[in-house]
Amino acid sequence: MIWQTGMEIVDKTYDLVSFLPVEEKYGIRSQLSRSAVSIPANIAEGSAKRSTREYIKYMEIAQGSAFEIETHALIVQKRKWVNEGMVNELLDIIKLEQKMISKFIDKLEASKVE
Fold first, then answer.
1. Among residues 45, 48, 69, 76, which one has the fewest Cβ atoms lying within 10 Å of its Cβ?
2. 28-53 pLDDT per residue, tens
């Protein structure tokens, strides 16, 4: 579910960036796209790791990317570059992803054998 939600964030982000000003192609557009893709990519990469410690590290990177994309989306919202509803929809799913990742990291940490 966490990876699938990350993929949904990617889809919604690519929809949103298509409405951003052309002059932002190498600015906020690029930043939004890269941070969105980073979420499910790091979740997938982490799931292939053999140790729980490494898995947690990749989940934390995914979480960092979720907070990064949230900040970029808030900038887009503040600049009024895109329809408010579209940004809010993205922000809602980002918040959900942040919560799920956080809970999953807690679960992984609780299962670690030291």
1. 48
2. 999 999 999 999 999 999 999 989 99
SS (H, E, C) 8-49: HHHHHHHHHHCCCCHHHCCCHHHHHHHHHHHHHHHHHHHHCC
Tokens of 99: 């919560």
CA atoms of 106 and 110, how far apart (whole Å) = 6
The two structure tokens encoding residue 7:
């993929």
- The CATH T-level fold of domain 2-109 is de novo design (two linked rop proteins) (1.20.1440)
pTM of the model: 0.92
94 to 51, 54, 67, 100, 107: CA distances (angstroms): 27, 23, 8, 10, 20
The ranges assigned to domains in the chain are 2-109
Give the pair of three-digit tokens for residue 9.
């964030």
Which pLDDT score is estimated for 67? 98
